[in-house]
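Hey, can you fold this one?
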Amino acid sequence: MKTKILIVEDYPIVAMDLKNELTKLGYEVTKIVNSQNGAMDSIDENEPDLIMMDIKLGKNQDGVEIAKLIQKRKKIPILYLTAYSDDDTMERAFATNPVGYLIKPFKSEDLKS
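Sure. Predicted structure:
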């Protein structure tokens, strides 16, 4: 059985590139969403094994806050994928105990590891 991954990303090109790379690596992308509502609905519908979460989403949505809400409902590991690596952002993200933190732009080798 393939590992199922939910992608929460607000840039369609980044999301599709990520999906293509993950598919090549043998993972199943259950859905791509770009909002808190989409993420919350998808975890119930698709029950992913991992969530790849952008930290800065459109409409002033915060991926760290979304991750906290998800963790209250289900124990799904979070891997952050973001362009932001400042100390404050990383501290907030690490407080949610993610399984990883990848800085954009990512490379296929980064995803593989």
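The radius of gyration is 13 Å. Let me know if you want another pass with a different chain boundary.
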